[in-house]
Structures
1.
Amino acid sequence: MRIKVRVCSANNEPIACKILLYPVQPFGGEAAETGEKTTIYCDGVTEFERAAGDYAIEAYKGKLYTPVKARVVLAHEDVELEIILRAIVDTKQLGLYAFDAHSHVSRSLSSQAGNLADAAAVMKGEGFHFFFAGSPYDQHTHREDLDERCEEGTSYRERFSRTIASVSDDDFVLDIGNEIVKCRYGHMFMMNYEQKPPFSRYYDRAWDPWLFTKIGEEPAYEIAYPYEALGRERGPNSVAVAAHPTSWWWHKEQFITNIAATLGFEILAGSIDAMVVMGYDRDHVHYQALWYEVLNNGYFMPGVAEMDHTFDTHQTKHLAFKTYAHADEFTIDALCAAVKAGRVLASTGPIVLLRVNDQLSGAVLSYAAGETFRIRVEAFRCCDAPLQRLQLIVNGKVWKEYSLNDDRVVLDDTLTVSCDSYIIAKCYDAAGNVAIANPVYVRNQPFANHGFQSALTVQVTKDGQPADGRFWIGKNTAKSSFSGTLDCRIHPAEDVNIEVDGEIKQVKLFELDDLQAIFRHLYFGAFNRDRRYEAGEVPAGTFELARIRARLSQVELQVCF
């Protein structure tokens, strides 16, 4: 016999959702479970073939719809059940669209669940609007990568175009994304770009096996540096993000790193557009402390959430992590523009909106000394629990905290500003969920990472004597002459090519010895030799953000031929 289920929205249209079905004891007592739960994601209409008995059915759509639990008795004929899921808050009416761009669709060659269609069904049912799926995209691409045999030429967007078209609709868009860089310097993921095989082009393959044993010398670095890889692959409106920036752990007494060791360089090189401030833990204070350090250095840097979810496992914890963007329209380009502009919030459940002088997150407001600004925070609970407290964070410190016990709250306050500042709103609910609204910036000075350039002086010698020659910057074909010394201003991501008597040498600022020392200090875990820090904890000062900027501001080198 069949249990036919139809789950609808308040307007009686089928709605993508998650459905749980499990047998319970007969009516007359509490609905205690008596068997295993079956979990499916669907577009709202499904059916189950079951033997006679009593069954409980639960329907969910993320955490911003009120879950519904029902009970049916299957006796002599099929049973039909209709469930209405009602939104606690309609994010689309607020102009908010949920997305994720860090996941792995397939991790197991033995599981059929690792495919784009099933992964998209999960994301729809969890209330996402955009899904930039991460590699491997199915068992076939997984096997291709392991065997190092990829179909060159055709992008993954083209290869999976039919699936993308079939699962995308007026409320959901599937696209190809990827954790595009995985190396000793850190991991970065990117969305909205045309990725061609292999998806592992920028994976530091020699590093990972060595990392878990540390036998022999550190392997040579043989792939593009992170900033180079992101620069080569990004499109005009791509978004690149520094993943899990303080992530590390122990494995059999070996320090294993996923730390964003080169964060200070990537920010000034403009290779990343955002950094992760929420993931793995609902309130990842170490990510956030590093973010505040970034902002306190005068940088513009949006903060986002990441799932890092694997779709062919039974874990569901990571599905709660969402980034919402205030997008002008329901398109990938509009979403990416909003992320790069900082019009975002990260959440595991509630919604929190910040306005300063009626301007949303990402806004930059100038000020006169002693000027007072109006702050309004609006927050909405999720289905797990009422809102419990709300914080206003100014320049990385909690300025005010409000105790709550509400489903929805609007708070108004004022702040007097006498120096460049930023304001963040953060709320908690009684279940431990967290939401963080990105900053509104109140500042008169330009952001330190916008338009940053290095003043470079190079003393050039040949056989110990000052040399004459020519130099050019990056891909610029115009060459300038020099005699003994060359001076120029360059973007940190630009290479300087120096030619003397037909021989060419290249200067990359990323390779400066003192910068590499900072990076190695992080990726080898030297900051934790005394083991005072727990896994995932890295002191924000260890990233040496101010020192990196000072070093790159004025660079003097000697190149010998």
2.
Amino acid sequence: MVLAGIPEKVVSKTGTIICQAFGGTGCGSPDGGGRPQAGDGDRPGGDDDGGGGGCKGNIFQKGFCHAKNGVSSAASGTGNFFKGAGLGVWDAGVGIFEGGAFVACLAHICSHDGFKSNWGGLKQLVTNPKDSLKAIWDDATKHCRKFTDDAEEAGRCTTNIIGSIVGGKGLNKLNKLKKLPGGKKTPDGPKVPNLADDAKRSADEAERLAREGKLDEAQKAADEARKKADEAERKAREQGCPVALGPPGLLLRHPSYGRTGAVAVAVCPAGQSAKQARREAGRAQKAVLGPRLKQLGLGQEQADALLKSIKDTDANSLDALQRTLQHADDPAKAPHIKTALDDLAALSKDDRITAPSLQGALAKLKNASGEKLDAEHRALPSLSAEVNRARQVADSGQVKPGTKVAIGAKGATDLGGGHKVTFPQGVDADVAYVDSKGVVHLNEVKDGMNAFLGTLKSDKQIPKYSQWARETGGQPKFVVNSGGKANELFRHPAEVQKLIDSKIPVEIDGKTYDSEALRRAQEQGHF
């Protein structure tokens, strides 16, 4: 099917010359249409191929000799074929080299212009495969369409096709071929790399102003860097480029490949530039957040550890941290915010917390710090208590080496070290970890006795925890910071009995009580 586009005369001449080149008999004559003729004798022997070039040796040495020295128009078909083949082998070698460079360039190991050129070729193939493949074939077979009686073109035809396939010449030249009919034109507009440069300048300005202590001005520069990053991502999407922050490889799907077809390509230049702009925006934001954290009371080491644990490209977490610090001026909220951030910094320093937990905790902290804080609204103290519990567990030596502590774990949770657990619906772990024996622990943390009593009065949570423990062998536990009001629990005997029957231990103000200890305390009416 591939050879259907080459005239029959071309194919037959090529076959005849290849037959002669490799010493075949009955090969016929190129002038006779390339068909074997009855009575044809063996190919003449001798070291000189009679091609007029004085080349000796085996057929490959002769071929490269002709490629180097050239032969006259009166040369034999074999000699001219190898001249063409020699030139074609050179083309193939160049193609293979360029193919390697093409692949390397997709990983951005080349100039930015080269990267954009190679992406352009791949984009042509993805958006217009039919015409792209035709253009590649036309370029690969140009020598096949040229020759008539000249065997040199036949040799070059043969190797040029191979070079185009093996060397990837078709792909890395595609962007330089003629404009393809029906191809999609990349929309014009602001150059995304320019926006990345603008973001970098704003980030540099933010860092300079932050060093000078001009934090309000530095924040304005950081905001400008973020605007440039947002615009860069928007423009990249308009140009059909992905701006995802995951691995550089991705799958682009096109209808021409069918329902399941896809071609693997690399992120296009605009997407890479948009990602770089986002990094610059993150750098600018961190330049302001560092001094703000120290103003709150965190030490330099803690502030650096927390910011290092957040990727420059994680705009959501950086934004959450910024908005949280905006509420630190409230004297009632500031202690809870400081405690939570200090604990998160300690957990991040030695990589003892899962990445999703850090992101989730920062998001919750942003929301909780923005809510009202009084006796009935305890979202901020509750979250601070959860994070503090995670730090206590991590510092206690209970956690299995190689695993991490999770905060706010739901559903499928990877605790590291090969420990992947799935918490069923309705079973949420404020803190989860694996102990040295491999047992999964689930801590339900409550800030205050009222919050704990509310859980005990619920008819849903305790049965689910008990069922999870029976089915998985895990260990649930209630952790309560009562603030010195532990004995208030015994004013609610029905709730105490429910806790005893569940066999779920409870830790109150640092001391743990199992079911038997709770029964004795209930009889006494106090701990």
3.
Amino acid sequence: MTFRLRAVRAFALLLGFFLMGLALLSAMAVLDWLVLTHPVTEKAAWIGGTVLIVTVLLSAAILRGLFTFLRAGRLGPVLEGVAVTPEDQPGLWEQVRAAAEVTRQRPPDELYLVAEVNAGVSEQSRMLGLLHGRRRMYLGLPLLAGLTVPQLRAVLAHEFGHYGNLDTRLGGVTMRGRAALLQTVKAFQEGSTELHQAIGALYVGYARMYLRTTQSVARHQELAADRMAARHAGRDTTVAALRAVPVLTGAHTHYLETYLAMGTSLGALPPAGEVHGGFRRLLAARTGERLVALSAGQRSPRPHPYDSHPPTAERIARLEQLPADDRPDEPTDGPTGLALLRDADRLFTALEARTLPQESALLRRESWDELVMSRALADAEGWSQPLRVAVARTLRTSVQGAGGAVTDSVRRDGTTGEVTDDLLPGLEEILDAFDRGLLWPEVADRMPKPHQATRLVGQSARNFIRPRIFDGLAGLVHLRLAESGQAKPDIGWSGQPGLLLPESWEKAMDDAIDSAVADTPDTASLRALLTSPHHAPA
């Protein structure tokens, strides 16, 4: 079956989705007419009333679905985006209009910058997508920060290529119909009554059939959009853009989870404009393989079963089968899409105001170095607290035992009476306790652990709890070095944010702590580091 015939079939099925609702409404109207014009006996009168109630509720559900279907093409307000006009950003609009012209499409009426690694064009359509309306484009600032200008041209041409409909006008209608059906099915699935959900099941079944039937049409449109992008920006540039987008997505996820999240639990944010703008700094510090590595350990999102996009590898393979063009290779380190913007810092700040919740206005602002230091100190406190509490309880028990009045009942899960912070021992007191032989098993038994781990005994129990004791000592060391000014914050855009320790500590700390938490604790190396002369950060 040719693409044209498949598109005609898809349009007929789309029309059938709408007609199915009208047919159901007509059938229920006939049923109600029969009930009203052919009254039953008085004893069975309740049956007629029940039928009327059920048909009215079902009709309401169907009308809701039809109304949703007809409104599916409407464009709502953009709450988390910054609108930019041609007068405000002429360079960006010039590229958008050029991509629209080469695909023989009209440019968007609106352009919004959003906080995603994504680009898209949506259109307000009516009459099952046959009538066009206002067109809107979305461009992610993180996407502009990571793509070169030629790669951005390829992405823009691909998005307009969805509406090119070079094979048949009904191809674009099919794409809009898929979006409308998915929105309608979602409305039915969110129905508040069982009758809504019952009718929804019928529509969901029809929608799945439609989506399966039109899958080949949708994928054909995607591949056609890729070819359009290759004609506009060049084959190799389009391939490079396809490879770059998932890498940028992984890098952006890493940025959000590693850097932006540092201040979440501390009630702090980076400086104004840096919530989204800090991503530029990560991209500047990492290139090539180091950037790819950020997404290596991330699980790719599970694709929607009716996703119109073929796998990226398939799209790249099909593009590489196209004849090579005579265009020169574009530099991979050329200016990014942000170079097209006037005052990018202002746009990042404006986008931040649109995307952050209102309560974020109450949060304090800290520089990146201040955020790193605050996060590092909070982590060090968290690591060291369980060890300090365990040692405090051990020391209290040993003192009471020596006096013949042991009142601290210690359980193997580490839950005993509360110990106030002002009574917690410091680093030297903890090392003294280790030297007295209190680490195994007294302190170890008082360390918090999962219920299942309380069954461990002997060497298995020691090996399980040893890393937590190690972390506790490391946290105390970090607190000591930060207090003395020897540890400095390191944002680590090319690595991981954390503390920069003196060179002597960087080289010897892990071995010294390993010795202190060994089966036969030896704290001499750690004590020697603590008493060594002041060292400047490495």
